[in-house]
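Q: Hi! First time asking for a complex rather than a single chain. Here are the components, and I think there are three in total. Is that enough to go on?
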Amino acid sequence: MIKQYRRLAIPYIVWLSLLVFIPTIALVILGFTNLTSSIVFSNIQFTFSNFTIFSEISILTGFKNSLIYASLTTIISFVTGYLLAYIIYKSKFKNKFMIMTLMILPMWSNLILRIDGLANIMSNNNILVDLIGFSPLRNLIGTPVGILIGMVFTYVPFMILPIYTALEKIDYNLDEASSDLGLTPIKTFMFVTFPLSFKGVVTGAIMVFLPTFSGFAIPKILSQGNMIFLGNIIENKFTNTVYNDGALLSASILLFIFLAMFLLRRFDKEGETLL
Amino acid sequence: MEKKPLIELINISKIYDDEAVVNNMNLTIYQNEFVTLLGPSGCGKTTTLRMIGGFINPDEGLMIIDGKDFSDMPPYARPINTVFQKYALFPHLNVIDNVAFGLHHRPQSYLTHFYEKQLKDLNLSKNALKKEIERLIYEDANAMLKLVKLEGYNSRQIEQLSGGQQQRVALARALINRPKILLLDEPLAALDLKLRQNMQYELKEMQNKLGITFIFVTHDQEEAMTMSDRIVVMRNGIIEQLGTPKSIYNEPKNRYVANFIGETNIFTGKITSDHEVEFLNSKFKYIGYDQFKIGDQVDVVIRPEDWDVVSSDKAVISGDVTFSLFKGVHNELVIRILDQDVLVNDYEYYQVGTTLGLKVDPYEIHLMSVANND
Amino acid sequence: MTNQVYPKAHLNDYGYKEIKHIKPILKILAISFAILMIFMLYLPIIVIAIESVNSSVITSKFDSFTLSWYTNIFNESELLNAIKNTFIVSLIATSLATVLGTLFAIGIDKLPKKMKSKIVFLNNVPILNADIVTGFSLMLMFRFLMLLFPNIFGLTTLVLAHLFFTLPYVILSVLPKLKELDPNFIDAAMDLGIKPYKAIYLIVIPAIKAGILSGMLLALTMSIDDFVISFFNTGAGFDNLSIWIYGVLGRRNLTPSVYAFSTLLTLLTGGSLILFNKINQRKGKKHTK
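A: Yes, that's all I need. Here is the structure of the assembled complex.
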């Protein structure tokens, strides 16, 4: 009788097919066309010549930058994020809701305003210097460190929450069992706690890597336009209606996304840590 | 035979929220014995067990193990292993890795000493030594699985196992470390009756065979009676009585223990003459209990199975059957005598309404001084 | 009572290192680290708050403390318009996403295993997908639909786009709660004569309340601050706050009232969540009494 409820899902299946499945295919196909604003729909031609953009220096640089910064951000977020998640976990804060609140609250401020605020105090003349005489982030604007700090502290909550969720799900008895069997707290962490929290790490890494790899706002503002990132390139292509190149580059990002989804499937089937 | 004390709890107390969950407890546990902590929920038995294991530290008192003060020591340094109530098996490891876990993570020096006998005459290089020890560990793990009758389950995942199987893995995981003391925290609680009874038997056998001390916690008195060498009956953080199953059953110190250990008859009585007590308006001769004097008020305990149903001429007291239930092994009868219900277990079946006569042998009359009751 | 003195056992005797003296140091380090991290997370917000009370329009100089930017919000018509648009879109999209998402999740939960995992897989795509890719591919679809509905770009496409990426969050929040729900409840309800669709309202929804609420919260959070996807899918000058800020920022004539608004929003949201939490805690305490 409960199977009747299945019907409720049908509209959503249609929706997903229409808006996920088809556009994705369309996007990939578009990458193989010559569609720009100057070409009318009916005159579309298929070509492989678009692939030549991958040999352009600017594109390669953009790719390289995005890859390096995304990877570094993910690694730094992992180290700092895991540490914080573990500290909160060990402190036996019963209130998960408050922790979620604390992590999510910054997201309610507009991203651009936030990054602009960071850019402010990373500049030579900034408001903190004016108020209290110094700024811990002074003169970091435009530097790799500055960009990294901006990225890490914007996205580290996405690393902390899944890891904390995974840690919370570990049966407390396992800690005691491990201790009972002769393992010191450090060894217990290495051989019991960490392996069992790993799916949170995978989810967190994905949730940090993907947006930093494809984002353009943060790199644009914090590098003061001096560095090229993949996101900037795609943004440019689209706003300049060079749709086919934009689509092709987007498709290459899709590859990473599918890889990520495959990893998620492998490590966290139930999707428990995705939130 | 002089048994060596292994664990001594000296004036141990544990206080939660101004309430003493364990109250000034003194207990000595010896080598090679099966001890059970018995009592209802909240009596402090699990807390006591956890203090022995080191998972909680006592607020007062000393925990002496093997002659040394272990009160502040963490669990990993104690020569004790535990079988947890919910098994606490590692879900990310398969069965054999779970079993080998404890030994697997010991330092090289410990393992060299642990396997002294086997490694004695072998002159091995560092690498070969490591490999040999690994081999020995897994050999032991396999032997343990055989001991708990789970041979061949090596590469199963934990989630594929039933409750009973998980419990045996937990047992194997603990025993492989050859602890002097094994703690068991209500390990059979989640099993069905038949399985539980099997495991009770197996655990007792294992303890006999291995010769180590088992400290068992349960609220099921039948379980305690079946397996233990000694039982510690607890209530509200103190020990009500400590003794062999037989002595507790036959000579409960007070009403609480008497009622806890099984359904029984307790009558108010008075000593009327030399080794003679009066209850139910009749006089009964008893043996022992020399501490009671004529005129003393006593509580008389008579087990339902100790009553003999006899013909009225041999009976001391008699009354009508008000309740009769066939229980397979025996019949449970309630006989109404002088406004009191007398519980009688008998092999014969008697219908409700039948008049029966009862008598009891002198050595089956147990007395408790009224001052011991509350 | 024995007066015997027992030798104390030491960790060193058993091959372990004594860590008692390190523990307090570790604790202090941990707390400092945590405070540092949280401070860094909130640093931008602090800056925004400072700027919101800065009487100078030059963001690198602090003139004097003023609250006038807060009252000035109501004078900035463009800002108000953007705020209004943002709230309209987000509230509509979130409400739709919550209701529909819950119903969809109930349906998905009962699907046969293979289909279920396929749908959950597809469901994850909007969450993981780069904003740019989502934004652009949605725009493509809407371009096609434009052939049928010429005026679609604007509020409609925005709401649809927001719905697209908020539905998965609601579904992802609700599904685990559905999994925990005892199927016997629904069977019992049917047994008592309650129609299946009423059963959803009477039984399922109350049981998964927590999942629905956290899904709704998540959806709202994601929707309010969205920039890229909205950027590609709006039209007819229907700017939301993020798009408007991005545009104005470039032109460097950003009114500090934006900072005031942002600070207000943060305080309001934070305050409501704390309040909500306190109420929940008190409810819990009442039950245990």
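A: Chain A touches chain B at residues 171, 173-174, 176-184, 187, 191-192, 195-196 (CB under 8 Å). Let me know if you'd like any chain examined more closely.
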